[in-house]
């Protein structure tokens, strides 16, 4: 059996091998990305060199033949032939000034055979070339010797750099007469390179940078200059006032160029052209390094992620197998538990059947108890009239022969007791079943006035004059006319009986609130106690001590109002009177109009 430690060692070895392979792959991908990015940088440098070379060559070719063409003019030959004649010199100056204005050259000037300026396009400026000796300039010595000369230099008179192109002016009979020179300003090219973010420099045949988009590179050698070269440049004063002798070389170690703020750079140089010039283009290496590092990091991350996902997949497979095994175990336990629950369900079903039987027995017992209480109330209400009837009829039998007039009164009393029992049975019938009479639109104010008229005899007997408050118009509700009238009569009778005879106040008010109609009966009686108020609508519950009260009036009223789709609201404060309100849905205008039609 393999030990746990051996398994862990084997897993660790496998993981180390995988990490090594992933790291090697990431380094190879990073190196490939470095080479691709470096190749793209060099392609960009080649394009910059090509565009820069064409721009310089085009700018120079615009003025290359200007000295030769200008030197053929008669005014130039006249100035060379008669240098002491002011008219001839003035004509040459004005001619050169006009040529510069038309061609766009920076300066155009004429040197005699000794290198002294006879005429110049800037003859009217403080920095005029007229009278200056430029015989030390290489462009003069080359033009005098070979016929043409050119050099890039800093002007000793103006201090402004430019490219000087010179052509010898000959006379067939007299030989060399002078040299015509044009100065070209190439600084706009430097400015355009700087504005587009290019890092370009132009070096002369001695590898001295004389044009650059980066000011810090200008007038600095690429490598340390030999002593003879420094002496020759000092004698020709090409880079006068540039401190070339103290300038540090750009290539600090071999061919490495450092860009300030961006580290090492890769460089590319063009073939030589135009007096041994060469273009130098540079770009920082950090984009290539960033591409290589980013690629290596991404590949390493992807490899680690792949290893993690593979390991996660293996763990997932193991987990699935474990869960399947656990599922089988759980299913077996569920089957066992299901059998146990089945037995428990059967036992509970038997218990529930016994409980339902017991509950049915209890309900039946409660029904019998309720029937017993109701029977006791009915027996109580019926036994008194029957006993009174028996006594009355017995008295009538004895007085039939002795006092006939008393017999009539007793018979009248017996009829009253019979009517009381009939009224009680009628109330019980109304309470036990709902009336099936249909509902119809009823004018509320008319019903209220009819109820007041029916209660007037009892109110007059008690010395009460009920008040009636009703709104304008004829509001209507959907109800039964007679039953609504019965409810109002019952409420008015209760109010009349509750107040003090001769001093009580009873009010019947009809009002509208939103889409409801409210009929309120208010009295200033003693009110209903708080502990009794919830029971006043129960059947056979009454607060009256004697009289005809059966405790069914409010119960019947409550049932009737519910049949109408309304509700009964009872508010009472001990010592502050009672207000009972019948709240019914109010018919809208369309139903009221249909009822009227």
UniProtKB/TrEMBL annotation:
<keyword id="KW-0418">Kinase</keyword>
<keyword id="KW-0547">Nucleotide-binding</keyword>
<dbReference type="InterPro" id="IPR004358">
    <property type="entry name" value="Sig_transdc_His_kin-like_C"/>
</dbReference>
<dbReference type="Pfam" id="PF02518">
    <property type="entry name" value="HATPase_c"/>
</dbReference>
<dbReference type="GO" id="GO:0005886">
    <property type="term" value="C:plasma membrane"/>
</dbReference>
<dbReference type="InterPro" id="IPR036097">
    <property type="entry name" value="HisK_dim/P_sf"/>
</dbReference>
<dbReference type="InterPro" id="IPR003594">
    <property type="entry name" value="HATPase_dom"/>
</dbReference>
<keyword id="KW-0808">Transferase</keyword>
<dbReference type="GO" id="GO:0000155">
    <property type="term" value="F:phosphorelay sensor kinase activity"/>
</dbReference>
<feature type="domain" description="Histidine kinase">
    <location>
        <begin position="377"/>
        <end position="588"/>
    </location>
</feature>
<dbReference type="GO" id="GO:0005524">
    <property type="term" value="F:ATP binding"/>
</dbReference>
<keyword id="KW-0812">Transmembrane</keyword>
<dbReference type="InterPro" id="IPR003661">
    <property type="entry name" value="HisK_dim/P_dom"/>
</dbReference>
<keyword id="KW-0902">Two-component regulatory system</keyword>
<protein>
    <recommendedName>
        <fullName>histidine kinase</fullName>
        <ecNumber>2.7.13.3</ecNumber>
    </recommendedName>
</protein>
<dbReference type="InterPro" id="IPR036890">
    <property type="entry name" value="HATPase_C_sf"/>
</dbReference>
<keyword id="KW-1003">Cell membrane</keyword>
<dbReference type="InterPro" id="IPR017055">
    <property type="entry name" value="Sig_transdc_His_kinase_DctB"/>
</dbReference>
<keyword id="KW-0597">Phosphoprotein</keyword>
<keyword id="KW-0472">Membrane</keyword>
<dbReference type="InterPro" id="IPR029151">
    <property type="entry name" value="Sensor-like_sf"/>
</dbReference>
<dbReference type="InterPro" id="IPR005467">
    <property type="entry name" value="His_kinase_dom"/>
</dbReference>
<keyword id="KW-1133">Transmembrane helix</keyword>
<keyword id="KW-0067">ATP-binding</keyword>
């Amino acid at each position: 059996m393999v030990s746990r430690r051996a398994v862990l060692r084997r897993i660790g070895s496998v993981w180390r091998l995988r990490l090594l392979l992933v790291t090697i792959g990431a380094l190879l991908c990073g190196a490939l990305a470095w080479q691709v990015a470096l190749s793209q940088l060099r392609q960009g440098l080649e394009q910059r060199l090509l565009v820069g070379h064409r721009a310089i060559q085009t700018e120079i070719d615009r003025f290359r033949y200007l000295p030769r063409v200008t030197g053929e003019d008669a005014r130039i030959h006249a100035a060379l032939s008669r240098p002491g004649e002011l008219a001839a010199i003035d004509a040459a100056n004005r001619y050169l000034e006009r040529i510069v204005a038309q061609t766009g050259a920076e300066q155009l000037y004429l040197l005699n055979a000794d290198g002294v300026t006879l005429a110049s396009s800037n003859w009217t400026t403080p920095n005029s070339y007229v009278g200056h000796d430029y015989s030390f300039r290489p462009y003069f010595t080359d033009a005098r010797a070979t016929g043409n000369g050119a050099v890039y230099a800093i002007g000793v008179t103006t201090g402004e750099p430019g490219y000087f192109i010179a052509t010898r002016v000959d006379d067939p009979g007299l030989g060399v007469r002078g040299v015509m020179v044009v100065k070209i300003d190439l600084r706009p090219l430097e400015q355009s390179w700087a504005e587009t973010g290019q890092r370009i420099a132009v070096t002369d045949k001695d590898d001295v940078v004389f044009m650059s988009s980066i000011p810090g590179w200008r007038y600095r050698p690429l490598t340390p200059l030999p002593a003879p070269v420094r002496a020759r440049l000092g004698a020709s004063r090409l880079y006068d006032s540039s401190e070339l002798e103290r300038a540090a070389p750009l290539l600090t170690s071999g061919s490495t160029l450092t860009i300030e703020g961006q580290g090492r750079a890769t460089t590319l140089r063009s073939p030589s052209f135009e007096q041994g010039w060469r273009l130098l283009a540079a770009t920082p290496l950090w984009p290539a390094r960033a591409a290589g590092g980013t690629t290596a990091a991404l590949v390493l991350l992807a490899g680690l992620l792949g290893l993690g996902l593979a390991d996660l997949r293996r763990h997932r497979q193991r987990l699935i197998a474990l869960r399947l095994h656990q599922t089988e175990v759980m299913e077996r336990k569920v089957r066992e538990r299901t059998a146990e629950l089945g037995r428990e369900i059967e036992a509970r079903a038997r218990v529930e059947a016994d409980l339902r039987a017991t509950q049915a027995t209890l309900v039946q017992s409660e029904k019998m108890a309720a029937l017993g209480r109701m029977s006791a109330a009915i027996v109580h209400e019926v036994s008194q009239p029957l006993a009174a009837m028996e006594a009355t009829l017995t008295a009538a039998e004895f007085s039939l022969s002795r006092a006939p007039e008393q017999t009539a009164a007793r018979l009248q009393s017996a009829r009253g007791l019979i009517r009381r029992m009939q009224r009680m049975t009628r109330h019980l019938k109304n309470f036990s079943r709902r009336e099936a009479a249909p509902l119809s639109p009823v004018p509320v104010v008319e019903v209220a006035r009819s109820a007041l008229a029916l209660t007037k005899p009892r109110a007059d007997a008690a010395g009460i004059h009920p008040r009636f408050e009703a709104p304008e118009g004829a509001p209507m509700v959907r109800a039964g006319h007679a039953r609504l009238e019965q409810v109002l009569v019952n409420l008015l009778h209760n109010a009349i009986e509750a107040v003090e005879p001769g001093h009580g106040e009873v009010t019947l008010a009809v009002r509208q609130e939103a889409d409801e109609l409210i009929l309120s009966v208010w009295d200033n009686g003693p009110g209903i106690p708080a502990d009794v108020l919830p029971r006043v609508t129960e059947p056979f519950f009454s607060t009256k001590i004697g009289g005809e009260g059966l405790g069914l009036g409010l119960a019947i009223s409550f049932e009737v109002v519910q049949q109408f789709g309304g509700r009964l609201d009872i508010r009472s404060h001990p010592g502050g009177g009672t207000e009972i309100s019948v709240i019914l849905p109010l018919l809208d205008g369309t139903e009221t109009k249909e009822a009227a039609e």
